[in-house]
Amino acid sequence: MKAEEFDRRFDSGEDITSELDIAEAKRPGLQSRRVNVDFSAWMVEALDREAKRLGVTRQSIIKVWIAERLEHRDLAVR
User: Fold this and answer.
1) Interatomic CA distance for residues 61 and 9, integer angstroms
2) Dist. CA 20–CA 71, nearest whole Å
3) Helix runs in the chain, H state only
4) Contact (CB, 8 A) for 61 and 51
5) How far apart are CA 17 and CA 45, in angstroms?
6) DSSP letters along 6-36, please?
7) Hey, where are the domains in the chain?
8) CB contact at 8 A, 62 and 47
9) Summary mean pLDDT of the chain
10) Which residues, 6+ apart, have CB-to-CB distance to 64 below 8 Å?
11) Is 27 helix (H, G, I), strand (E, B) or coil?
12) CA-to-CA dists, residue 20 to 14, 17, 23, 24, 68, angstroms
């Protein structure tokens, strides 16, 4: 199917999922990359307490807090 036909069908609200190869789909800029960070013991304990209070993992709370800080910084720079 040509791009023009795909766009037309999508724009008209047709279900085009059968035309997609979901197994090969990628999310640009959202691929995971592993990093190692050393934290002081008191920081890990505080993170664990907050994560337990919120019912999430330590990794989740670290990722959310860093994302919030980066988004805030990006808005301040603009």
Assistant:
1) 41
2) 31
3) 3-11, 41-54, 58-77
4) yes
5) 45
6) HHHHHHTT---GGG--GGG---TT-------
7) 3-77
8) yes
9) 90
10) 56
11) coil
12) 13, 5, 9, 9, 33
Please give the distance of CA 59 from its chain centroid, rounded to a whole number. Answer: 13
Residue 9 is encoded by which pair of tokens?
């069908």
Q: Identify whether the C-beta of residue 50 lies closer than 8 Å to the C-beta of residue 61.
A: yes
Structure tokens at 30: 């959202």
Q: Is residue 77 very low, low, confident or very high in pLDDT (cuts 50, 70, 90)?
A: low
Above 80 in pLDDT, residue 74? no
Q: How far apart are CA 62 and CA 38, in angstroms?
A: 12
- Tell me if 6 sits within 8 A of 19, measured CB to CB: yes
DSSP 20: -
pTM for this predicted structure = 0.58
Encoded tokens for 45: 């304990």
DSSP state of 23: G
